[in-house]
Each structure stands twice: as structure tokens, then as C-alpha cells.
Amino acid sequence: MEAISEVKRAAAKAGRKGCGTAFAAALAAELSTVRIDREKERAQLKEQNRRLRIQLRDTAEAVHAAGELLVRLREAEEASTLEKERTAALLQENEKLKKQLEKLRKKHEMELETMKVHLAESRLPESALGAFYHHENERTPEYSCDAPLTHDDDQSWRAAFASAYE
Q1: What is the model's pLDDT at position 151?
Q2: Phi-psi category of 18—alpha, beta or left, where left has phi over 0 and alpha has psi -120 to 50?
Q3: Rounded-to-integer distance, Cα 123 and Cα 30, Å
Q4: Mapping DSSP to helix (H, G, I), strand (E, B) and coil, where does residue 123 land?
Q5: Do residues 124 and 157 lie in contact, with contact meaning Cβ atoms separated by under 8 Å?
Q6: By the 8 A CB rule, do 142 and 149 touch?
Q7: Residues with Cβ within 8 Å of residue 134, at least 6 apart in sequence
Q8: Per-residue pLDDT tens for 43-75?
């Protein structure tokens, strides 16, 4: 504002001296140039402001996207941690089940051995089993249609296991 008042004073002085029209024309031309320069500067500042706003919007979008990525990354890390914990628990349970399976296998083997021993101890006397081991070509008098049935072997078998039936 001060510059304008100085120009007006200078114009008033010049008008008194008689060279007012030339000075006024020069002053008007200078003011026009200043206005044009200001308009250009204002347009440049508007354009720069527009570009900066676009850049700011892009930056805000990038920051937002980065935030979303961080959230996803955090979720993925949590999921990974949970999965690792679950895997460790499953491995531990797997080991426990393997040990249990091994114990059951050993127990089964021991039971089989015990059953074999009991079976060996409780075998029927050979006289009781002799009739079952005949050859097909051989005909034994006990099982022939012509021979009378004998119960001697049956009685000896019953006598051997009589204590078990009591």
C-alpha cells in the first residue's frame, strides 16, 4: 500500500510541473506490468498449490496403504506365531503318541509272549491230540465206521484237566 501512495504523490507532483500526461502513461504502463507479473505469480502459485495438494493426496493414500500393509503384516505375523505354536503342540502330541504307541507295542509283545508261555504250559497231552494229527491216507480204527468207539483218550484228557474244571 505504501508504494501506491508514493506513486500517487509522485504523480501529483509531476502533474504540477506540466509533464503529467507522459508520466501518467508511463506510470499506468508500469502498474499494468506489475499487475500482469502479480497475476502470473498468482497463477504459478495456484498451480504449485494444486500440484502440492495432489502430491499430498498421493502421499496420504500411500501412507494409508502402508498402514494397511502394516496391519496385514502384523496379522500375518500373529497367524504365523499361532501356527508355529500349534505346530509345536502337534509335534509334542505326536511324540507323546509315538511313545504311547511304543509302550502299547511292547505291552502287546509281552502279552503275546505270556500267551505263548501259557499256551505252551496248557497244551493238551499228546494222547488227547493224537487223533487230530492222523494223515488222511491213514485210517485209524477209532474213526472207522467198523471200529467201536473208545473213550480212553477222552477220559485221560478229562483227568488231566479235572483240576481246571473244579
Answers
A1: 56
A2: left
A3: 135
A4: coil
A5: yes
A6: yes
A7: 140, 143
A8: 999 999 999 999 999 999 999 999 999 999 999
The residue to which cell 500411500 is assigned:
62
The pTM score is 0.42
Give me the half-sphere count of Cα atoms (radius 13 Å) on the Cβ side of residue 49: 6
Q: Which three cell numbers stand for residue 113?
A: 509272549
List alpha helices for 122-134, DSSP H.
126-129
**In sequence order, what DSSP letters do the residues of 79-90 get, joined into one string?**
HHHHHHHHHHHH
pLDDT per residue as tens digits for the range 145-166: 555 555 566 677 777 776 766 5
Dist. CA 72–CA 3, nearest whole Å: 60
d(CA 88, CA 9): 92
CA dihedral 152, 154, 156, 158 (to 10 degrees): -150
